[in-house]
Design brief:
Layout: H1 3-32, H2 62-66, H3 81-100, H4 109-135, H5 147-160, H6 170-195, H7 202-215, H8 217-243, H9 251-273, H10 278-281
Helix pairs in contact: 1-3, 1-4, 3-4, 4-5, 4-9, 5-6, 5-7, 6-7, 7-9, 8-9
The structure holds zinc ion.
Zinc ion binds near residues 51 and 76.
């Protein structure tokens, strides 16, 4: 192999390895954040007997397979969700690597920063998706508390001078988060007033605000909301036809899927929807 190809393969493997480790951490967050427990201390432990996981039993996916999905100490089953979320982390790491570092020309620190910032965004979305599905909870740590990281990410990428249609300026990041947060907070209040119950939860409002701080309000958050609505409608119709009952799907997983879609293929989506919108993205 040419030296370039070797370097690229090493870069890709690094992205997958970091993704797997992040996935392992996300699984811990999914377990602990709905219960308001620390995700830093204590470290990974069996949810059944509480004994700490040995470092050599903490290798993503592989350890679960070797232990046949059981705790080494008490034999309690470790949910299959653990290796699945780890695999998901690795897959997202690879997809984002392919998206932001398509060739050796982008194999540099600024593009790895681009990759890392969006791995952070999607990581928050994965946790929010799972906790919303399992507990109807979207943790503040993955939503409103992550807004400063969205702004910091925009500032870092601006400082590094990264050129990508997805990147927004730090000012756009701040204004977007404020505007989107205020808009959807108003929608939530009005929906509650009109319906008599929550039409849009506060967790959803905070999550959408976080997304806006990373990718900006227009067109990104608009398109992400549009994609999530389309996905919700498709799911609703399929569910109705299959079970003859109305479906309820929380917004978290829909937003996670549509945010990942936008990060990966947003320019193509916008070009498809609005053929005249190249002013947002420039020629390609
Ligand atoms: Zn145990």
């Amino acid at each position: 192999m040419a030296p370039d190809a070797v370097a690229y393969a090493i870069g890709g493997s690094f992205a997958v390895a970091i993704g797997l480790v992040i996935g392992s951490f996300l699984d811990l967050c999914i377990d602990r954040m709905p219960e308001d427990r620390s995700v830093v201390w204590p470290g990974s432990a069996c949810t059944s007997c509480g004994r700490p996981v040995r470092p050599y039993d903490n290798v993503p996916v592989l350890s679960w397979l070797l232990l046949r999905g059981r705790c080494r100490d008490c034999g309690a089953a470790i949910p299959a969700r653990a290796p699945l979320v780890e695999l998901l982390g690795g897959l997202v790491g690879l997809l984002l690597f392919h998206r932001f570092i398509p060739s050796t020309a982008e194999l540099d620190l600024p593009h790895f920063a681009l990759w890392a910032v969006h791995l952070g965004l999607i990581g928050c979305m994965i946790v929010a998706a799972y906790t919303d599905l399992g507990h109807r909870i979207i943790p503040n740590e993955t939503s409103i508390y992550a807004v400063p990281f969205g702004v910091a990410g925009a500032a870092l990428l601006a400082w590094l001078g990264v050129d990508d249609w997805l990147v927004v300026s730090p000012l756009t990041s701040i204004v977007s988060a404020a505007a989107v947060g205020a808009f959807f907070a108003t929608v939530a209040v009005m929906a509650r007033w009109a319906l008599g119950h929550d039409g849009l939860g506060w967790g959803d409002v905070k999550l959408i605000t976080m997304i806006a701080s990373f990718v900006g309000a227009i067109p990104a958050t608009l398109i992400i909301m549009l994609l999530a609505s389309v996905a919700a409608s498709v799911h609703g119709v399929v569910h109705l036809v299959a079970t003859r009952r109305r479906a309820y799907l929380p917004l978290g997983p829909l937003l996670a899927l549509s945010t990942l879609t936008y990060v990966l293929y947003g320019d193509a989506v916008v070009r498809g929807l609005f053929p005249g919108a190249s002013m947002f993205f420039g020629p390609r």
